[in-house]
Amino acid sequence: MIEIYKKLPGTNCRECGESTCMAFALKVKNAQCKMSECPYVKHEDEENLTEEPIVTMGNNYKRVSNELEEEIKCVDLKEAAEAIGGNYEDRNGGGVIRLKMMNNEYEVRNEGLFKGNQYCQDSWSKIIIYDYVRMKGNISLTGDWVSLGHFPNTASHSKAFQKKAETKIAGKFDNNMSGLKERCRELEGVEVHGKIKADYVCGFKLLPRVPMYLCFWEADEEFPSSCKLHLDTSAEAYIDIEYLAYLLEWFVKIFVEC
Ligand code: SF4
Domain span at residue 131? Predict the structure, then answer.
């Protein structure tokens, strides 16, 4: 990340959409942005970096997903299904866990992850679901809602991301409560009452036992619209928090694309 940062002007001008050059460098490192999205990067610097960290990160995701896939072959899928709220099926002598990740159906089989009847090629889907299965969380919801930054060892970018994600939702649905509710319904959200004082609270299942609560406050004379994304504290028993941060980011991307 530092190598990437050194190629940037360091002016934090925000033209790339990130609040700082450092945040942009981190996104480039994680292959979430391209160097060319900063208009001030010299072409030769962009080329120099293309070979090293960007490609390596992409390969890293693939390597991690392959390693987890190997690990999953040794997991008792029946036991795991019970622990994570998946549906277990014996099929042709092999165990299968059926589960949903953000409204998409997946199957974890001995030979890997499947979406529909197709082997899933997406490294991030595999990383998240394999990690969820192997962790076998198996604890009840605590009912304590916290933000992502609450969890120990949360990388600073996870906290920064959440702030940005919340701002994105608040901006998109500013003065549009009916649009927000409609979008929540489309994504199978369930309205929640009484837990938090907000104008609207809606619960989503990111994974069967990993709920996320979107809390929204409408603008008034004093404050603009705002949004908070809360997680149950039990989430850390079910999934690595860095992967959970990615899942939240994914959710927000889908949520505002309407
Ligand atoms: S556009 Fe370039 S200089 Fe401006 S904040 Fe982004 S990375 Fe930094």
Answer: 73-135
Q: What's the pTM value of the predicted model, to 2 decimals?
A: 0.74
DSSP 199: S
Query: Model confidence over 118-136: pLDDT tens digits?
Result: 999 998 899 999 999 999 9
When computed from its CA atoms, the radius of gyration of the chain, rounded to whole angstroms, is 20
Q: Is 11 in the pocket of ligand 1 (CB under 6 A)?
A: yes
The Å distance, Cα 165 to ligand 1 centre, comes to 19
Provide the number of structural domains found in the chain: 3
CATH number of the domain encompassing residue 46: 1.10.15.40
Residues 6 or more apart in contact with residue 195 via CB below 8 angstroms: 145, 201, 213
Running DSSP on this structure, what letter comes out for residue 37? G
Residues 161 and 216 in one domain: yes
Q: What is the distance in A from the centroid of ligand 1 to the CA of 42?
A: 12
Share of the chain above pLDDT 90, in %: 50
Distance 95 CA to ligand 1 centre (A): 49
Per-residue b or e along 26-60, where b marks 16 or more CB atoms closer than 10 Å to that residue's CB: bbbbbbebebeebeebeeebbeebeeebbeeeeee
